[in-house]
Fold this protein.
Amino acid sequence: MSDIEDELRQFLPSGFGKQTVTYEFEGQYQKCKRLEYTDLLSQKASKNAGITSDDDDGSDDYDELEELPISHEIILKEHNKTVSALDVDSAGVRVASGSYDYNMDLWDFNGMNLASLHPFRVVEPVESHPIHELQYSRSGEWILVIPSSSQAKLFTRDGVEESEYVRGDMYLRDMNNTDGHVAELTSGAWHPTDDDLFATSSLDSTIRIWDANIKRAQRDIIVVKSRTSKGGKTRVSSIAWAPDGKYIAGATTDGGIAYWSTSGPYNRPVASIQDAHEKESWTSGVVYGSDNITLLTRGGDGTIKLWDIRNFKKPLLSRSGLQNTVQETNISFSPNGRYIITGTSSTPESLVGQLHIIDKSDLSTITSLTLDASKPSSVVKTKWHPKLDQILATTSTGDIHVLFSREMSVKGAKVVVEKAPKVRHVDDNITADIDLTAAAVTPDMMSGKHRDESRLTNQQRQKMARKDPMKSRRPDLPLARRMDGEVRVFNFNADDEENLQKRRKI
């Protein structure tokens, strides 16, 4: 008897009033755990087992690996081509991504769960134009969009277009006399301390500084001249502001790097170096360190180089062998400045590119992560968010990988993992048997002929009856003659054949 009571008790509520529902998300974290990270830890542990106390280098590597937010990941899949642009707002809530599929996708961590990883807005900023760069303003209210056209655009954080900046006169030879770019944009960046200023670079050999409130002309212009072609034009591939906003640096396709003081004048750089990278290679990434004097570059020649702008003659450190065939591949520092992150491209020798986390002190690799080994792909954009302590990386297959640590990371992807899935109503069960014929809509239904008359008012019934020829007993309509002599028959039958023949003889 007790067994029957126990079974019945399972169907009865345990209490009255509002019940506290708890969601167990341990299984969700297990789904997001990266097997590659577990393998790396086991390899490091086995390696350290044979190291004596006199040599603790291996244990240091083990500790460094545990400090990295790479133990778990979620993957955002919406683009179908290379994700060439990526940024996260300063609060760590919104993510903006741009792609070769022409779309800008806007994501919200607070609006997603593991069962529904989709953007809340998809926008095509410029029809049939890939996107090179996206960047949130410091306040997070605006998104600067750098498409493959000559005009930058400004969008709100909700994906509404706010401004499109002017295009220059392509027939003017002197770039100082044009009010905007005349060739394809390559890069763009907000001023680090002023939300009203941003800079853009282009294939027209200029860097232009804009006031976000003025669309008709740039505020300042820097015409970049090549030192290898007798002062001729050169294409500017990437730019970067110093964190204090006092300098702006630019890289060119002739292998050169230069930087200018933002207080002017802009007719010549403060310093430049001619052969920083190989000529005709695309230097895809330039970034300042937090000290405002360290400059890091990512070359299309497969190298990364660390510079001191006070002695701009040769790099402090250099490393090669990091293949880069995608023009949007960037490079960036970790929030604490100890590490450098960048991606590598797929090659015939190595079909799968990797995410590299590099020690800034000697440019050695701390770890290299394969994000997707199932198909050839390159790692393009990377970002280590300081508030979330999470790493975002995009691939040439259209995926966005968000790597995080369950212990160290804050919000962001953790909000997605810990959010309970939506409780579906019984009516939401798409697998239930549905009578599709009952839900079919016919023209008669659209006209109201098959309405449920029990729900109609008397006035509606009378109106429908007047339109029904049977209920209203409407007589047959007579023949009518058009002005052009053609006869229209409203209600024709065989008895009218004789009259019709007579009318045609008239």
User: Anything to note?
Assistant: Residues 164 and 450 are 52 Å apart (CA to CA).
